Amino acid sequence: MKKLTVIICVMLSLSAGAFASGKYHGDIQFHMGGTAASSYVRTYDSYNAITEEKIKTKQICFDIATWHMWDLGECCSLGFVVDFYGGFGNLDNWSAASLNRAFRNDVEDNGPIFGGIFIGPAFGVQFGKVAKLSLGIGFVSDLSVLYRNDYLSNTSGDVTSTLICSAGVGADVQLKLFPTIFFSPIIGYRCSVGIGGKVSAYEREHGRGSYSSGGEADAIVPMNGTLYVGFSFNW
């Protein structure tokens, strides 16, 4: 957490210097899109037996992001991006009916719910006043909760939720139209791969209340990709 705070402070200092020189460009963005995610989890049960699971989900995602860039020349810029995202859903497909069921919370397994933060350096190429193509590469921290699933459990109890925490690397590429005006439409794609993490299962046995189990997974590799559309307010 301390390292993340230092990184954010350094980036803000750099953007403040760029703003003072008159070459700074920033925005705040709002996105909505679809996320296809998969997680490979390998852990050990109480008998030291290996349990391997591959979990695949489709979800609705919402983002609030901010990009801060300063010019390197007439068309190129360098800076950083911070993106807070989250979503829900366990969609069978991307049909209107499936999306409607997710918004009404009428989905099998009642989940999952997920969220995270993406932060890292960014590079942009601007094509006059028509469009700007930007790429961010950096650190990703994810948290997801899967409800009413029996993943990671070989017991006779009913699993009510499974919690997966992970950190890894990601990338975000987006195309912003009319970047020099106050309001711009955006289309983009963000993806990430987790490197290590923690998984916990919260179980409920019949007539005995609830208890938790889990810990550091032997291996956990969550992956996700989000195609989104949105808009930005530029300054």
Question: In words, what does this structure look like?
Answer:
This protein has 235 residues and is mainly beta. The chain has helices spanning 2-20, 96-103; strands at 24-44, 50-71, 76-88, 113-127, 131-147, 158-177, 183-205, 209-216, 219-234. An eight-stranded antiparallel β-barrel has the order 1-2-3-4-5-6-7-9. The longest helix is centred in the N-terminal third of the chain and has 19 residues, at 2-20. The radius of gyration is 20 Å and the shape is elongated. The chain starts with a helix and ends with a strand. Mean pLDDT is 78; it is low at 150-155.
Biggest pleated sheet: 8 strands, antiparallel, barrel
Strand order of the largest sheet: 1-2-3-4-5-6-7-9
Helix content: 10-25%
Give the helices and strands as they follow along the chain: HEEEHEEEEEE
- CA-based gyration radius: 20 Å
Poorly predicted parts: 150-155
* Strand element count: 9
Class by alpha and beta content = mainly beta
Gap between N and C termini: 29 Å
Percent strand: over 45%
Round the mean pLDDT to the nearest integer and report it: 78
User: If helices are DSSP runs of H or I spanning 4 or more residues, what is the number of helices?
Assistant: 2
Shape descriptor: elongated
